[in-house]
Write a structure and sequence with these properties.
By secondary structure, the chain is α+β, with helices and mostly antiparallel strands. About 40% of the residues lie in helices and about 20% in strands. It is built from 10 helices and 14 strands. Strands 2-1-3-7 form a 4-stranded mixed β-sheet. Strands 11-12-14-13 form a 4-stranded antiparallel β-sheet. A 3-stranded antiparallel β-sheet has the order 4-6-5, with helices on one face. It is elongated.
């Protein structure tokens, strides 16, 4: 794990300076803002999530891509990493940045938590943070009284004096990810996703082009289209490159029988993006998906990753190579519809019986 504080910048949790963060980055409470969203009673989970997103986007203190929304028992907890205070983080590092309170264990009731920088007065109920106020120095009685008065909860009886500061340990479960409220898709994000899928389809198309070319003249036209696309991409703009991808994908779709590999690849890469750092390498065939992940300097919840891969519609039988080499962990999964995948599914049903 990496820490980001006000003075030292990005450091490893063990105290060593680290310029290249591969794991989650715990951002100091001094660099974050917190606001709770209390949902009206009677709303469904979906309505609460949509209402929380509207709440965050309409609040000038929270609006922006740096805001993290987490679904809670009372509604949602909104955290915003103040980008203007973290100018040295690259876009890739910002995607790994998480407010430190989300990475620490939950408390109960009224506490003063010792943070990476300073102290945070907090009120917890049912495992959810309902109010928080940060100070650089330990809380005085006046500062504590001011925080208690700001908490709108008639049932909460606070101690008269500030409690002794405690340090909540960092959690190993990453349970906050389960309640993460993702930002809704826009036309731009949809376009990016379509381009990504098109490029993934191109990789698969190239893999099977040789076999398809031996079976029909249509496959030969697909190979020609791929060559033309490569030439256009080398000579002209990104628009021509995208148009070449689309032409190649359409030609290959006519040349070869329907392939399960693109769907399996999309499921696998989306799951890896949620639970692990970007893979060092990956490979897809009609039968299996294989990826190599860096395990040194990163935190991978292996069981959660394998469960998510097995739960995806196009994959099953995900398993790790238990003898990693050079700090790389190999994950393999079967593509649904193959003999191996059918055997995995039969074994899973037998286990449940």
């Amino acid at each position: 794990m990496f820490l980001l504080d006000e003075k030292s910048g990005l450091t490893r949790a063990d105290g060593e300076t680290g310029a290249h963060a591969a794991g989650p980055i715990a951002v100091s409470r001094a660099l974050c803002r917190f606001k709770p969203f209390f949902a009206p009673p009677g709303l469904s989970d979906g309505d609460v999530r949509r209402a929380a997103r509207v709440f965050a986007d309409s609040d000038p203190d929270l609006a922006g891509p740096e805001t993290v929304l987490v679904h809670t028992a009372y509604g949602a907890a909104a955290w915003r990493i103040e980008r203007e205070k973290t100018p040295d983080l690259t876009p890739a590092q910002m995607r790994m940045a998480v407010p430190e309170a989300l990475l620490r264990e939950a408390a109960d009731g009224w506490v003063v938590a010792r943070c990476i920088d300073g102290y945070d007065a907090q009120f917890w109920r049912d495992g959810a943070l309902r109010a928080a106020s940060w100070r650089r120095a330990p809380f005085t009685e006046a500062a504590w009284a001011s925080f208690v008065l700001s908490v709108d909860d008639d049932a909460a009886t606070a101690p008269a004096a500030p409690p002794e500061p405690i340090e909540l340990p960092f959690s190993r479960t990453k349970s906050w990810r389960k309640g993460l409220i993702a930002r809704p898709w826009t036309w731009r994000s949809a376009e990016t996703a379509l381009h990504t899928l098109a490029l993934a389809g191109l990789v698969v198309a190239v893999f099977f082009a040789a076999a398809a070319a031996r079976q029909s003249s249509t496959a030969q036209r697909a190979e020609s289209a791929l060559a033309a696309m490569t030439q256009q991409d080398a000579q002209d703009s990104a628009f021509r490159a995208r148009r070449g991808v689309e032409q190649a994908a359409r030609a290959f779709a006519l040349a070869a029988p329907p392939s399960r590999a693109p769907a399996a690849l999309a499921d696998a890469l989306e799951t890896l993006d949620r639970f692990a750092p970007p893979p060092e390498s990956w490979r897809i065939t009609e039968e299996t998906f294989t990826a190599q992940l860096t395990i040194q300097g990163s935190e991978i919840e292996l069981q959660e990753l394998l469960s998510a891969l097995n739960a995806s519609p196009a994959l099953c039988g995900a398993a790790p190579d238990l003898s990693p080499h050079d700090g790389l962990l190999t994950i393999r999964a079967f593509v649904q519809g193959t003999d191996e995948a059918d055997a995995c599914a039969a074994a899973a049903r037998a286990t449940r019986l």
